[in-house]
Predict the structure.
Amino acid sequence: MLRKTLDWLYTGAAWMAALCMVGVLCMVLLTIVSRLMNFYVPGTDAYAGYAMAGAGFLALAHTLKHGEHIRVTLLIGRFTGTARRGMELWALSVSVLLSGVLAFYAWRLVWQSHQFHDISTSADATPLWIPQVVMGIGTTILLVALLDEWVLELLGRRVHRGGEAHHE
């Protein structure tokens, strides 16, 4: 049940990232059409940027769980058995720590932007906490995915193939 829920979370975030990419496309097309028809839609550049950032952050966990993140296996690939497992756990522990810090500061930024009523300097004047929430969500889901990988490695259920690791 937990595995299905986690996989649903990663897939759902990937679908949201895909929707953000569609949002980028829509903003670019709207900008092109508005220029051709001599009218101005304020904020399209900013909204395209927000959507692009959202796509990047929301896709992080799904990308990790499908072994698509770039990993430097030059060192870990030289180890086997217990030593390799120890190195994997160390690398995952550092990753969990760093992603936890990233998620903390992403949510802190959201909170501060909300508290200070920080708005975009673009023509749209969007309250910045709104697009920043997507960054907080994406970094939090990445933290969950890295914790998931750490637990799988600890339990010996992470499958290693060609220097990469995937869960069963």
